[in-house]
Amino acid sequence: MKTIASFTVDHLRLLPGVYVSRKDSIGSETITTFDIRMTRPNYEPVMNTAEIHTIEHLGATFLRNHAQYGEKIVYFGPMGCRTGFYLLLSGEHTSEDMVPLLREMFSFIASFCDEVPGASAAACGNYLDMNLPMARFLARKYLDEVLDKITPDRLNYPQ
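Now predict its structure.
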């Protein structure tokens, strides 16, 4: 069986950052997939499901309501390894293009102090598994340590 592209990235050298994971063509449309890596794989602890779930709800709500990018959002959700998220957008985009949007999103999450959107039994299949304080902490950490001082080695996969 052919190895999929994401398994060819050297996770021992991968730093928290924003990476173009892949670009796919669907008909005449390009879908750009971003790897939003929040923790260093195999070196730092992974995120727990409650904070990931909270970031997912807040991030998806923010992104789908964004004035400029809302119509382009295809998907935002967690990686199975719990070290980050995937963001899929219609169109051709670069990692650099996404930094301002992600700064906005993670600032929104870091300062969010209300009921988490969709955190009810009617709206979510596991609504009790939420941790807003930890989601806010991780969003602030990612802003401070990665997005606010992003460098080229955190925008391009290691070779």
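Residues 49-64 form the longest helix (16 residues).
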